[in-house]
Amino acid sequence: FTGNHQFVEAEQAYQTGIALQPNSLEGHFNLGAFYEFHKKDLLQARIHYQKYLDLGGKDTRIQQLLNQLEQ
Questions:
Q1: CA distance 16 to 53
Q2: What is the largest CA-CA distance in the chain?
Q3: What is the band of 2 on the pLDDT scale with cuts at 50, 70, 90?
Q4: What is the 3-state secondary structure (H, E, C) of the chain?
Q5: Is the CB of residue 57 less than 8 Å from the CB of residue 25?
Q6: What are phi and psi for residue 60, nearest 5 degrees?
Q7: Has residue 56 got a pLDDT over 80?
Q8: pTM for the predicted model, two decimal places
């Protein structure tokens, strides 16, 4: 349960950061990675990765991942 509690706290912290700085490249990238790798929630990861790219993010792995998810 401790690990799950830490994930909940981490998710809340990331969400708070995005609320305070909605155009944060790093914030959307980190939240996308959190959902992709820790929560295994590709739908939420995709939302934040897309925002990251829309804001000018250039990570090619993210671009490739979103292209794969669209297929």
A1: 20
A2: 37
A3: low
A4: CHHHHHHHHHHHHHHHHHHHCCCCHHHHHHHHHHHHHHHCCHHHHHHHHHHHHHCCCCCHHHHHHHHHHHC
A5: yes
A6: -70, -30
A7: yes
A8: 0.90
